[in-house]
């Protein structure tokens, strides 16, 4: 007996200018992906970015007070970051020199 399974994939159709399709195809080729995979991944990544930007963070008043206390306190240097910002940039003299 054949049953109707729920559809797991949903088609999306778009009309795009030829130049856009050419650029997408070129980028997909550079990534070794199909046009469909490339566009799907880019769309999902963009959707995740929007959702993360608009995410609501809930916390108790006590939790918020603790959060504000940490933010208001003195910064603690991270040795790896301090070392990184002391390195010369690639366009500066001394770049690549051993310390």
From TrEMBL:
Superkingdom of origin: Bacteria
Matching InterPro entries: Ribbon_hlx_hlx (IPR010985), TacA_1-like (IPR014795)
GO BP of this protein: regulation of DNA-templated transcription
Keywords: DNA-binding, Repressor, Toxin-antitoxin system, Transcription, Transcription regulation
GO molecular function: DNA binding
One Pfam entry name: TacA1
PANTHER family in UniProt: COPG FAMILY HELIX-TURN-HELIX PROTEIN-RELATED-RELATED, CYTOPLASMIC PROTEIN
Family indicated by similarity: Belongs to the TacA antitoxin family.
The protein's name in its UniProt record: Uncharacterized conserved protein, DUF1778 family
């Amino acid at each position: 007996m054949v049953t109707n399974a729920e559809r797991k994939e949903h088609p999306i159709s778009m009309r795009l200018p030829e130049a856009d399709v050419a650029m997408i195809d070129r980028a997909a080729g550079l990534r070794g992906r199909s046009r469909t995979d490339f566009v799907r991944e880019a769309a999902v990544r963009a959707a995740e970015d929007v959702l993360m930007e608009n995410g609501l963070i809930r916390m108790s008043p006590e939790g918020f007070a603790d959060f504000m206390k940490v933010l208001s306190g003195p910064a603690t240097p991270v040795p790896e970051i301090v070392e990184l910002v002391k390195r010369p940039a690639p366009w500066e003299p001394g770049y690549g020199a051993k310390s």
